[in-house]
Amino acid sequence: MQHRTSEPLVHSVDEVARILGISRSLAYQEARAYVLTNGRTGIPTIKIGCRYVVPAAALERYLTIAVPDHGLGGDATPPAA
Protein backbone atom coordinates (compact mmCIF):
# COMPACT_ATOMS: atom_id res chain seq x y z
CA MET A 1 0.00 0.00 0.00
CA GLN A 2 1.46 3.30 -1.03
CA HIS A 3 -0.09 6.51 0.25
CA ARG A 4 1.95 9.66 -0.17
CA THR A 5 0.24 12.97 0.40
CA SER A 6 0.97 16.04 2.45
CA GLU A 7 -1.96 15.18 4.72
CA PRO A 8 -1.32 12.74 7.57
CA LEU A 9 -3.37 9.55 7.82
CA VAL A 10 -3.65 9.93 11.59
CA HIS A 11 -3.43 12.74 14.13
CA SER A 12 -2.14 12.60 17.67
CA VAL A 13 -4.63 13.48 20.39
CA ASP A 14 -2.61 16.66 21.05
CA GLU A 15 -3.06 17.66 17.38
CA VAL A 16 -6.79 16.95 17.58
CA ALA A 17 -7.05 19.16 20.67
CA ARG A 18 -5.49 22.03 18.68
CA ILE A 19 -7.68 21.33 15.62
CA LEU A 20 -10.87 21.33 17.71
CA GLY A 21 -9.82 24.16 20.00
CA ILE A 22 -10.26 22.08 23.15
CA SER A 23 -7.94 21.31 26.03
CA ARG A 24 -5.49 18.44 25.81
CA SER A 25 -7.08 16.77 28.84
CA LEU A 26 -10.57 16.93 27.29
CA ALA A 27 -9.25 15.49 24.03
CA TYR A 28 -7.69 12.54 25.88
CA GLN A 29 -10.87 12.08 27.92
CA GLU A 30 -12.91 11.87 24.70
CA ALA A 31 -10.38 9.53 23.05
CA ARG A 32 -10.49 7.16 26.03
CA ALA A 33 -14.30 7.34 26.07
CA TYR A 34 -14.41 6.25 22.42
CA VAL A 35 -12.19 3.24 23.10
CA LEU A 36 -13.98 2.25 26.32
CA THR A 37 -17.50 2.53 24.84
CA ASN A 38 -16.60 0.75 21.58
CA GLY A 39 -17.30 3.92 19.61
CA ARG A 40 -20.64 4.90 21.13
CA THR A 41 -19.28 8.22 22.42
CA GLY A 42 -16.14 10.32 22.13
CA ILE A 43 -13.73 11.24 19.38
CA PRO A 44 -13.02 8.40 16.89
CA THR A 45 -9.77 6.91 18.14
CA ILE A 46 -7.55 3.88 17.63
CA LYS A 47 -5.40 2.64 20.51
CA ILE A 48 -2.04 1.30 19.37
CA GLY A 49 -0.21 -0.07 22.37
CA CYS A 50 -0.41 2.75 24.88
CA ARG A 51 -0.81 5.45 22.20
CA TYR A 52 -4.08 6.92 20.98
CA VAL A 53 -4.33 8.15 17.38
CA VAL A 54 -7.24 9.67 15.50
CA PRO A 55 -7.61 8.71 11.83
CA ALA A 56 -7.89 11.87 9.73
CA ALA A 57 -10.82 10.48 7.70
CA ALA A 58 -12.71 9.49 10.88
CA LEU A 59 -12.16 12.96 12.37
CA GLU A 60 -13.53 14.54 9.21
CA ARG A 61 -16.63 12.29 9.31
CA TYR A 62 -17.05 13.00 13.03
CA LEU A 63 -17.03 16.74 12.38
CA THR A 64 -19.50 16.38 9.50
CA ILE A 65 -21.91 14.50 11.77
CA ALA A 66 -21.31 16.73 14.81
CA VAL A 67 -21.96 19.97 12.88
CA PRO A 68 -25.05 19.48 10.70
CA ASP A 69 -25.92 22.15 8.16
CA HIS A 70 -29.53 22.30 9.45
CA GLY A 71 -30.92 21.71 5.98
CA LEU A 72 -29.43 24.88 4.54
CA GLY A 73 -27.64 22.99 1.81
CA GLY A 74 -24.20 24.17 2.85
CA ASP A 75 -24.73 27.88 2.37
CA ALA A 76 -25.61 30.42 5.06
CA THR A 77 -28.77 31.65 3.37
CA PRO A 78 -31.83 30.68 5.43
CA PRO A 79 -34.85 29.23 3.58
CA ALA A 80 -37.53 31.70 2.48
CA ALA A 81 -40.44 32.03 4.86
Entry keywords:
81 residues; three-stranded antiparallel beta sheet; 3 helices; globular; disordered C terminus
Largest sheet geometry: 3 strands, antiparallel
Number of strands: 3
Helix content: 25-40%
Number of helices: 3
Which strand order does the major sheet show? Answer: 1-3-2
> What string gives the helices and strands in order?
EHHEEH
- Report the average pLDDT across residues: 85
Uncertain segments: 73-79
State the shape: globular
> What proportion strand?
5-15%
Task: Give an overview of the whole structure.
This protein is α+β, with helices and mostly antiparallel strands. It has one domain (10-66). The protein contains three helices and three strands. It has helices at residues 13-20, 24-36, 56-66; strands at 10-12, 46-48, 51-55. A hairpin with a 2-residue loop joins strand 2 and strand 3. Helix 1 (13-20) packs across helix 2. The radius of gyration is 15 Å and the shape is globular. It starts with 9 loop residues before the first strand and ends in a 15-residue tail after the last helix. Mean pLDDT is 85; it is low at 73-79.
